[in-house]
């Protein structure tokens, strides 16, 4: 039985191979050629009218890109499409654009951006680490400011949050040390942990139902957020509520 098992094991281990007898020539298989490296992306490639998508990472790392015309037919800008485009200081987004993917403009050189009102969804860190960004206009149809949306935008001085926004994600404004104040609309229901706003509107919104922290308990905002006293007091009244 042990001999049979050993033969079966040897057979299974040598499947696909030829066992050569002593003195026989051994054919060495030719090495499998490595795949050729992909050609570098064309940072000068233009988008055409009729295109509906700016592809994922289409211009990522194109540090010499200074301007680009986005056709009116574009509906989606995919993940990391313009990430790392440090020389891209401005771009006009078309009316009709609906979605901007995660990190689409992260670490770009944008100084200002107007997001058209047709945009209803943005991915996390979409403008993260845009250190030259000073002004942004958010669409009035968006319901959620995603996590790290403007994280480390150290030059950002003002953001007007539309009344349509109900949720502000974790770290949405972390590191935005130049912001003087942000008015929180009445419709806000949740504010993520480490939102980090320099100053929040003095009167807390009536609709604020909970503040999320990593522990998922109903707590005041992280100590890394600078809160006005009135908002901190208002949130402290919620501590007696049930856990999320």
């Amino acid at each position: 039985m042990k001999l049979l098992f050993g033969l079966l094991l040897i057979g299974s281990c040598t499947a696909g191979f030829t066992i050569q007898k002593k003195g026989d020539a051994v054919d060495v298989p030719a090495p499998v050629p490595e795949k050729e490296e992909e050609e570098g992306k064309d940072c000068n490639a233009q988008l055409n009218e009729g295109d509906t998508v700016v592809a994922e990472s289409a211009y990522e790392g194109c540090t010499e890109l200074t301007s680009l015309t986005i056709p009116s037919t574009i509906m989606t800008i995919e993940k990391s499409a313009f990430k790392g485009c440090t020389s891209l200081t401005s771009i006009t987004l078309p009316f009709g654009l609906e979605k901007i993917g995660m990190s689409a403009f992260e670490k770009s050189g944008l100084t200002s951006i107007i997001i058209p009102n047709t945009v209803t969804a943005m991915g996390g860190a979409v403008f993260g680490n845009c250190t030259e960004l000073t002004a942004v206009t958010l669409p009035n149809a968006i319901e959620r400011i995603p996590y790290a949306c403007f994280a480390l935008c150290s030059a950002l001085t003002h953001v007007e949050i539309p009344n349509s926004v109900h949720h502000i994600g974790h770290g949405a404004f972390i590191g935005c040390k130049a912001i003087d104040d942000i008015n929180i609309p009445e419709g806000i229901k949740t504010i993520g942990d480490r939102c980090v706003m320099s100053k929040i509107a003095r009167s807390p919104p009536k609709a604020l139902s909970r503040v999320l922290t990593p522990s998922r308990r109903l707590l005041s905002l992280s100590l890394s957020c600078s809160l006005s006293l009135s908002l901190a007091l208002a949130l402290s009244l919620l501590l007696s509520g049930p856990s999320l």
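The longest helix spans residues 2-13. Residues 49-244 form a domain with the Leucine-rich repeat, LRR (right-handed beta-alpha superhelix) fold (CATH 3.80.10.10).
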